[in-house]
Design a protein that fits this description.
5 helices; 197 residues; alpha/beta; Ribosomal_mL43; Ribosomal_mL43/mS25/NADH_DH; 2 domains; Glutaredoxin; Large ribosomal subunit protein mL43
Length: 197
């Protein structure tokens, strides 16, 4: 079993402050493309820079794009976010299409989320002064002094009639009224036949 998760940064799941309340704010602040002009592993990165980089910069005016050539080094994408997080990725031997996909992922994610070990599945900046909800939150405080076993508290809770039960009762009442109407019609027919006779 790997202990790699022990060395990850830990934190809580959270959204950036104000994101989506008034408008969408792209969390990617700056992206740096490091590549070699002659090395074979940088072929996909060079293709992206030649054909797609200008379109990417026009479509994302809020993102600063740096291009940094380095001799005899593998290509790397370094993304920096508004919360100070950095996402570093080695893209050696990647195709141009793969680079486009990873650039889009870097633009759309909030930070380097896979490198964050979650401490809890929920978190709030403003905890309740009443504490977390429990089954006893809105119960009568007299229950604290009750001696058990108690017949009153141990009996089944009588809930209100469910919607299905209400529909069944309405259907039965409708059937009864239809039956009564048929009986009335039959008695009227019998009365008419007896008058004619």
């Amino acid at each position: 079993m790997s202990n790699k998760h022990l060395f990850l940064k830990s934190g809580f799941p959270r959204a950036p402050l104000g994101l989506g309340i008034g408008r969408y704010v792209c969390q990617l602040q700056r992206i740096t493309l490091k590549f070699c002009k002659s090395h074979g592993t940088s072929g996909g990165m060079r293709g992206f820079i030649e054909h797609d980089l200008l379109d990417y910069a026009k479509q994302n005016p809020g993102v600063v794009v740096y291009v940094k050539p380095r001799r005899h080094r593998h290509p790397v994408i370094v993304a920096e976010y508004l919360n100070g997080g950095r996402y570093w990725m080695n893209v050696s031997n990647y195709d141009r299409d793969d680079i486009i996909k990873w650039m889009e992922l870097a633009r759309t994610q909030i930070h380097d989320s896979p490198a964050l070990r979650l401490r809890k599945l929920w978190h709030t900046e403003f905890p309740s002064i009443q504490g977390p909800w429990t089954p006893f939150t809105f119960k009568d405080p007299k229950i604290n002094l009750t001696e058990f076993p108690n017949k009153e508290l141990g009996s089944a809770v009588k809930l209100r009639c469910t919607a299905t039960e209400k529909l069944i009762k309405l259907f039965e009442a409708q059937q009864l009224t239809e039956k009564e109407a048929d009986d009335v019609m039959d008695t009227q027919k019998d009365v008419k036949h007896s008058k004619k006779a």
